[in-house]
Each structure stands twice: as structure tokens, then as C-alpha cells.
Design brief:
This protein is α/β, with parallel strands linked by helices and 295 residues long. Helices cover 39% and strands 20% of the residues. The structure holds 2'-monophosphoadenosine-5'-diphosphate (ATR).
Amino acid sequence: MKIDGKTKVCGLIGHPVGHTLSPTIHNTLAQSLGQDLIYVPLPVEPGYLEDAVKGGYGLGILGMNVTVPYKSDVIPLLKNVDPAAAMIGAVNTLVRNEEQGGYDGYNTDIIGLQRALQEDGITLQGQNVVLLGAGGAARAAAFLCGQQQAGQVWIVNRTPEKANLLAQEVKKNYPSLAIEALTYARIEDPACSLLPTEGLIVLQCTSVGLYPHCEDTPVSAPSFISRISYAFDLIYRPEETRFLRLVREAGGRTANGLSMLLWQGVAAYEYWNKLQISSGQAKTVMDRLQEEVRD
Ligand code: ATR
């Protein structure tokens, strides 16, 4: 591509940013839409976040993604924060605000998960949903359950206190949502009568099963697996985690987290460039992402 004085620059701030697929998403979008825009990883050493945000604005950077460990720390450095991002306490997208001389913050992780599920024909409204995990990724999923008015939500985590805390926090923001913490021991008990025997939607938000620990799974009890009609694993390396394999072999539908990564990136690109990306344009990016994950 030709880079000149008019080329818009976007980037990803985080630590580390070495293995990111985000440049593939944004540079492919720019190329296929014929836009003069380039996206680069911008590693930010601990202690330099404020310099990075201010410096980014000073350098004319159009937009930035924010990843670990800065998604919460960046919030006080912003001009405005979108209500959904403020509620979950995490921002992953900064959008240049010329009037106020800084960046506004959004959370496209929630949008990404919602779009990924939607493309699979899944809406959480009225559904029985189990979330595995209570870390940063599970937070976005739990708040999406509130936003979409899920029927009943159970948060299952190795450290039960964290599941309790997350359930309480979501409940505070969505008082009518039925959400509670459960232990792995409870859900793996074949006699567990708290969960329905079929039709469960499970969002796998732990890091268990991530490459190279491909044979690990947070849960394997056939009595639990057989209750699942649809499982979404936020992991996309490997393409099929052991957990997803178990669900598929038991007859459930499955999807991995690559589509969430795609759609959170697409949503950020839409914010920066004030346009809508079609499913067809997103498909081109998905093909590229799949090639890269397989490499
Ligand atoms: P992320 O931002 O990807 O969610 P995180 O905040 O570190 O990362 O959260 C990782 C999640 O995976 C947590 O829910 C963690 O459980 P704990 O809260 O008990 O630590 C879960 N996790 C990690 N290793 C696990 C393991 N071996 N068994 C079960 N859960 C595990």
C-alpha cells in the first residue's frame, strides 16, 4: 500500500501486543474498502499508559484498541466513556474526539460477542445460560446476559468468591436478571436439579484449553455436557477446544471465539470511520483470520 501524509493511523496499545491478530482485521478492512488507513501494534511499557494516550492524540492517531493490562486503567484518561463500557469498567476502543482534544472510550467486546452469537442465530433473551469463568472475558459475557435479558444465568468459577462478586455486580445493574454463582462440583453432579436437563447455552470464558494445553477442559462430565444445546468458547487457538469437541460429540452446536474477535474489531473500525461494515465484507476478514490461526 501507498503511505503518505494523508494516511490515517490506528493502533493497539497493550503489553504485550506481539501475538495480536488485530492488524489483520483492520488492515484487511482498509484494503478491501479502499481506505487510506494503517493499523499497527503499539507496545506500551507499564507506567507509560498516560503518555501513550496523550501522545497518541498529539500524533493524530485516529483510534486505538486497548488490550491487557490497560482496559480499566485507561478509563480515567478519557474524555467520555460509553455507558455500557463504564458499567462493566472496561474499555477496549478509543475514538478520537477533536472537539474535546482527547479520546472517547467504548467496549466492543460485548458488541463482538453479541454479533458473533447473532450470526449463529443465537440471542440470549429468555435463555438458560451458563458462564464458565469470572475473569475479564466472563465480565463482558455476564453483562451481555443482562443487556439481552437472559432467562436464568449461572456463573461457574474455580474461585467461587469471584463468581459471587460478578453475579452481584451484574444484578446491581440489571435487578430483574436471575443470576447466581454455582460451583463446578454442582454442575457436574448428574443429579443437579438446578440446571435444566436440556437446552443450555454455555459461554466458555476461562483460559482453560488454550494452546498449547489443548487437552485441558474446565468441565467434562457427560451429565453436564449432554444438557448443552449450544456452546461458544471464547478461545480460538486451537480452533476446537476439548470442551467444544465434547459438546459437538454429544450433539450440541458449537462455535469458537474467532468470530467474537472479528466482530469486536469490525465494531471498532465502524466507530473510527463512521461507517457500517456488511456481513460480506466481514467474511473476507474472517477468511484471512482463519488462515492466520491455522498457520
Ligand atoms: P480473561 O481476561 O481471559 O478472562 P482472567 O481474568 O485471568 O483472564 O480470567 C481467567 C479465568 O479462567 C478465570 O475465571 C479463572 O478462574 P479463577 O478466577 O478461579 O482464577 C479461569 N481459570 C484459569 N485457569 C483455570 C483452571 N485451571 N481451572 C478452572 N478455571 C481456570
